[in-house]
Amino acid sequence: MTRTAFAAIVALAAVALLAAAVAYALGDLGNRHRAAPTAVGDFVARVGSAGPAATGRRTACGGILRATTFGIAHPTLPCGARIIIEFHGQRVLTQVVDRGPYEPGRQFDVTDALARRLGLEGVQLVHWSYAQPG
Predict the structure, then answer these.
(1) φ and ψ at 59, to 5 degrees?
(2) What is the DSSP letter of 54?
(3) How far is CA 21 from CA 11, 16, 33, 34, 48, in A?
(4) Is it the case that residue 23 has pLDDT exceeding 60?
(5) Element containing residue 115 per DSSP (H, E)
(6) Cα 74 from Cα 39, distance rounded (Å)
(7) Cα separation of 87 and 48, whole Å?
(8) Can you tell me whether residue 49 is helix, strand or coil?
(9) Which of 4, 101, 108, 117 has a C-alpha 20 to 30 A away from that of 76?
(10) pTM
């Protein structure tokens, strides 16, 4: 084999290796950076926080409310249903974690952690949508 032929083979192998590395990296990026969910519908509801007193309580969906739990209590949406809540420019993806609300005059309750994240105090009107995977 001549020196020129050997150099050509090495160059082709390097290009193939580089192409494989780029393809692998792009494939991995696709798995790590999934598209944000799409909001379906635009609903308005009166909501309030269940408050910190609910922390430690077992939910109707089978979990335990923690101080860091982001979720809602809704009377009919299935447990685990993903929704997007928007309040004063804050938009949060969350899910149904319990049944409720536990206070009259609300369409659903939000956990204390979610209320803090949204800046929601008392009972307020929020916009919400179903979250469809993006």
Answers:
(1) -95, 165
(2) G
(3) 15, 9, 18, 21, 50
(4) no
(5) helix 112-118
(6) 18
(7) 12
(8) strand
(9) 117
(10) 0.72
CATH 2.60.120.10 is the classification of domain 38-132? no
Task: Give 89-124 pLDDT, tens digit per residue.
Answer: 999 999 999 998 888 999 999 999 999 999 999 999
The SS3 call for residue 24 is: helix
Distance of CA 106 to the CA centre of its chain: 23
Within 10 Å of residue 79's Cβ, how many Cβ atoms? 16
Interval 40-75: pLDDT, tens? 999 999 999 988 989 999 999 999 999 999 999 999
Question: Which secondary-structure segment (H or E) carries 25?
Answer: helix 3-32
């050997």: which residue's tokens? 6
Write down the domain spans for the chain. Answer: 1-33, 38-132
